[in-house]
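Try this one yourself first.
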C-alpha cells in the first residue's frame, strides 16, 4: 500500500458509511479481527479500502463450513418419571391447593387483589409518609 494515495485509508465513520453499517459494528469487527486497522495517533484509527473490499468478497457455498449441529430437545432421551417421583409431585400439588384454600379462608373467600392494585396501594402509603 502506498502511503501517498489519497482516500486509501478511511476513518471508522467513513468505513461504516461505505459498508452501510453502524460505527459500533466496525469497532466490533475490529475487535473480532474481521477487519485490520492502522493507528495513526494515540486514538486515531484508519482502515484500508482493500480491507473493506476483502470483507465484502463473497464466499462460495463449498468454502463455507456448515454450523455444528446443536442437540435438539427431540434428540435428548427422556425417561418417564418413577412412581416415587410421581407421588412426590402429586403431594406437592395437593399441598399447594391446600395452601391456596387456607389463604382464601383467611381472606373470607375473596381472591388476591391484582398486582397493579397492590403496587398502587404501596405507592400511596409511601407518598403519604413523605
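Now uncover the answer:
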Amino acid at each position: 500500500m502506498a502511503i501517498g494515495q489519497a482516500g486509501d485509508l478511511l476513518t471508522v465513520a467513513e468505513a461504516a458509511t461505505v459498508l452501510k453499517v453502524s460505527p459500533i459494528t466496525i469497532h466490533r469487527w475490529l475487535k473480532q479481527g474481521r477487519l485490520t486497522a492502522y493507528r495513526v495517533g494515540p486514538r486515531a484509527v484508519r482502515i484500508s479500502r482493500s480491507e473493506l473490499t476483502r470483507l465484502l468478497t463473497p464466499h462460495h457455498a463449498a468454502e463455507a463450513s456448515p454450523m455444528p449441529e446443536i442437540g435438539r430437545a427431540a434428540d435428548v432421551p427422556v425417561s418417564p418419571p418413577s412412581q416415587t417421583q410421581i407421588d412426590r409431585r402429586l403431594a406437592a400439588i395437593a399441598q399447594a391447593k391446600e395452601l391456596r384454600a387456607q389463604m382464601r379462608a383467611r381472606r373470607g373467600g375473596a381472591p388476591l387483589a391484582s398486582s397493579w392494585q397492590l403496587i398502587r396501594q404501596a405507592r400511596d402509603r409511601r407518598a403519604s409518609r413523605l
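Discussion: Residues 51 and 80 are 56 Å apart (CA to CA). Residues 9-56 form one domain.
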